[in-house]
Amino acid sequence: MTDQTFHPIAARPAPVQHRGVVGWLRSNLFCDLPTTVSSLLIVAFLAWQLPTLLNWAVFSAVWMPNLDACHAANAGACWGVVPEKFRLIIFGRYPFEQQWRPLVATVLMVGLLVASCTRAFWKPWLVLLWVAVLATFFTLMYGGVMGLTSVPTDRWGGLPLTILLASLSIVMAFPLALLIAMGRRSTLPIIRSFCTVYVELVRGVPLISVLFMASFMFPLFMPQGVSVDVLIRVLVGITLFAAAYMAEVIRGGLQAVPKGQIEAAATLGLSYWLTQRKVVLPQALATVVPSIMNNFISTFKDTSLVTIVSLYELTGSHGLALNSDADWRPYKIEAYLFIAMIYFAFCFSMSRYSQWVEKQVNKGQQR
């Protein structure tokens, strides 16, 4: 005889609200005891330090480029250093009266980058747009034609130089990294060995060494009377360095593609390159989108190292603006924070765009 006694099921807890501000706080800051304790400690620390920070950065700060007011405001920041040294920080040693040229060139380059990240512009004529914008950029920056005063590349600096180095090195490094990653998986020993040696050799030295060799050592091997512009040498050095790191990221994505899909493509009669283009690369690149964007962001920030070869990009222009002026030198922290905001704006934009791309390429896996 089986036991027919009724055993009631205990009531389940009510579902937790996960939407709205309260739901977000409950899910992210107060979901369990350790998280709650950590959140309360962080909030307490901010409540302790935030008034002092706000007093220095906002309430007692000087916003106008008034040197006497900055000296008098001992407890506040002197944000007046930003408008006072703005043009020197943004455009470096570019001739003052000609600074409209790097301004227009920078706006065109940023617009091109935004267009390249917009789906509506993903057309074959986008390549022609890149050629046109780059030609206009170098024409405006260098001059020597159409009545523009010639400005050598060693006078270029600030934000235009940072955007130029980062954009071109990323654009040129990506296809090179793709070929190197595929070469490391090649069945031909010579190609595989060459790509492996290249990656291990470049990754084994810091970027400063690559820039130093490109700027100072490379000219020693050139024939007498032959010289390559330092900007081109630095650009090639950054490109080769970024390609080595990016190649390993892409190789990880290639290895993540199941071998059975490659074999299935072969049974359908697809050639090697068609298999790579139609089957392997779409899945591999979609897998490593966050890592690729992380490499892009790292390359953008690494352009600050070109200062060691006398190319004064954004951070180098900061040194030019303040190290030569003893009156404004005490307020270099405020200028550094201004530069940090510019870097953050670009890097955060790239990070958000990476998340959008990741969602687009993974739509097939969403439920």
General description of the model:
By secondary structure, the protein is mostly helical. The chain has a domain at 158-311 and 325-365: Orthogonal Bundle (MetI-like fold), CATH 1.10.3720.10. The protein is built from 15 helices and no strands. The radius of gyration is 27 Å and the shape is flat.
Helix and strand layout, with pairings?
Elements: H1 20-28, H2 33-59, H3 67-72, H4 81-91, H5 100-116, H6 125-142, H7 158-184, H8 189-203, H9 207-217, H10 230-256, H11 259-267, H12 272-287, H13 289-302, H14 314-323, H15 332-361
Q: What does the radius of gyration come to? A: 27 Å
- Structural class by secondary-structure content: mainly alpha
Uncertain segments are none
Strand content: under 5%
The helix tally amounts to 15
- The CATH topology annotation of the domain at 158-311 and 325-365 reads as MetI-like fold
Bulk shape: flat
CATH architecture label of the domain at 158-311 and 325-365: Orthogonal Bundle
Strands, count = 0
Indicate the CATH class of the domain at 158-311 and 325-365. Answer: Mainly Alpha
For the termini, the CA-CA separation is 47 Å
Largest sheet entry: none
What's the mean pLDDT score?
87
CATH homologous superfamily of the domain at 158-311 and 325-365, by name? Answer: MetI-like
